[in-house]
Design goal:
four-stranded antiparallel sheet; elongated; alpha+beta
């Protein structure tokens, strides 16, 4: 199981607000979550997505395309992937591990 930290940045929006684009991305993520492919967590600065690596790439491509579907002509997407293969790793287990040391 891999965890991706993803930020989709629409460039050239009419206003400084990007909340409508974030909401569209969240709708896509909810669909993939309903299919059981991923889990995700919205943060104030990015979205964390947990799933099998092929599913993550599929989801990331879908959310990268989202602003283009709303008329944006340029999108920058930042991706950071943590893919641990020696043991199962989830967003929840990573937090529990850190909290156990406090």
């Amino acid at each position: 199981m891999a965890i991706a930290d993803v930020t989709v940045i629409p460039i050239g929006t009419e206003t400084a607000s990007v909340s409508q684009y974030v909401a569209a991305v969240q709708k896509i993520l909810k669909g993939y979550e309903a299919e059981g492919k991923i889990k995700f967590q919205l943060t104030p600065m990015n979205t964390l997505i947990e799933g099998e690596l092929p599913d993550l790439f599929e989801v990331i491509q879908a959310i990268h395309e989202s602003p283009f579907e709303k008329g944006i002509q340029r999108v920058a997407t930042n991706i950071r992937i943590d893919d641990r293969r020696d043991k199962k790793s989830t967003m929840e287990s990573k937090l529990k591990s850190v909290n156990a040391h406090q």
